[in-house]
Amino acid sequence: MDSIIREKNNEAFLKEGEERGYRPYIDSLKAQKNQRTPGFYQGSIQKRVADDDGTRYFLNIDMFDMGAVSIRASNHWSARAWVQFHVESEHGKVADVEISFENFADTEAFFDDIWTKMEFGHYEKD
User: Fold this and answer.
1) Burial 69-88 (b: 16+ CB within 10 A, else e)
2) Handedness of CA 6, 85, 108, 118 (dihedral sign)
3) Residue 109 sits in which domain range?
4) Is 55 contained in some domain?
5) Where would you tag: which of 3, 59, 92, 93 has the fewest CB atoms within 10 A of its CB?
6) What's the CA gap between 74 and 118, in Å, rounded?
7) What angle do CA 72, 77, 82 make, to 5 degrees?
8) Total tally of structural domains belonging to the chain
9) Beta-strand (E) ranges in the chain?
C-alpha cells in the first residue's frame, strides 16, 4: 500500500483511510492558498485519535496532485501528514509536527510515538 499516493489512486487511498477511521474534508485555507495552481490541493482526511481519557489529537493528511505543478510528475500524488499537539504543562501552547506521508500504519505509529514520548496533553478530555 506504500504506493497508493504515488500512483494517483485516490479511490484506494480514501477507502483505506475510511476503513481506518478517517473522514474527508476540504481545508478552505489550503484550497484558497493554492488557487494559482488549480488542481494541486486535492483535499484532506482527518482521524480523531482518542483513548479512555479523551481526544489525544487529530491526525490530518493533505493530498496534492503533483501533475498540477510539473509535467514530469503528472502521474504522481503527494501527501503530507500533520498533527498539532497540545503541551499540557504550558496552557494554550502547541507543537506542530508534519511529515511526508508514506503509508497509514507508519504515519499513525510515528505520531503515537511522539505523543507518548513527549508526554503531550489531550486536545480534549472527556
Assistant:
1) eeeebeebbbbebbbebbee
2) positive
3) 10-125
4) yes
5) 92
6) 39
7) 135
8) 1
9) 23-25, 41-51, 54-65, 77-86, 94-100, 124-125
Encode pLDDT of 97-122 as tens digits: 999 998 999 999 999 999 999 999 99
Q: State the CB neighbour count (10 A cutoff) for residue 34.
A: 17
Q: For residue 74, give the C-alpha cell.
A: 503528472
Pick from 73, 58, 1: nearest CA to 25:
58
In a domain, 4, yes or no: no
The answer as to whether 38 is a domain residue is yes
- pTM listed for this prediction: 0.84
Q: Strand 54-65 vs strand 41-51: parallel, antiparallel, or unpaired? A: antiparallel
Q: Is 110 exposed, middle or buried (0-12, 13-18, 19+ CB in 10 A)?
A: middle
